[in-house]
Specification:
four-stranded antiparallel beta sheet; about 160 residues; 2 helices; single chain
């Protein structure tokens, strides 16, 4: 029996006060099923004085590619985001003082903004986190034709 590797944090933003936003990739959505094999399951953990949430996020390989580009271009006054077209979205807006306004928007459950001042080297660390996710769950499905359906996350009851 093949088992999934352990969870890997794609995003881990935390400040000295304990406020945090973490995107933890926990595994493939449907290992062994071609149409869902490369979709990664993740949980978004957000904590501040006013919120303590655990939300679901699903990531395609193209989401990881986009995250890499957006993270590389993040500078004061700009934003980077992940998710959004299939449910939950996470947006990081860098302020002039290099602190982050982290907006979490799950249309079905929660909208919140956290202010986090990450350590100086957080961007380099997050590029390494992205590569760790890719090494842990490499893309194994070669797309030979464009997808003809729109994948949606499972419905919540």
């Amino acid at each position: 029996m093949v088992t999934e590797p352990g969870a890997v944090d794609l995003i881990h933003l935390e400040d000295a006060g304990g406020d945090h936003c973490i995107v933890r990739v926990t595994g493939r959505l449907q290992p062994g099923v071609l149409t869902g094999h490369d979709v990664l399951r993740a949980e978004v953990l957000a904590h501040a004085d006013f919120v303590d949430a655990r939300l679901e996020l699903y990531l395609f390989p193209r989401d990881l590619d986009a995250w890499k580009r957006e993270l590389a271009g993040l500078a004061p006054g700009t934003s980077a985001h992940i998710g959004g077209d299939r449910g939950l979205s996470l947006n990081l807006h860098m302020q002039e003082d290099r602190s982050l306004a982290v907006t979490i928007d799950d249309p079905d459950r929660l909208s919140a903004m956290l202010w986090i001042r990450p350590p100086e080297n957080w961007m380099d660390e997050h590029h390494e986190r992205l590569e760790q996710v890719r090494q842990t769950w490499p893309s194994e499905v070669a797309e030979t034709a464009p997808m003809t359906y729109e994948w949606r996350p499972p419905r919540r009851s």
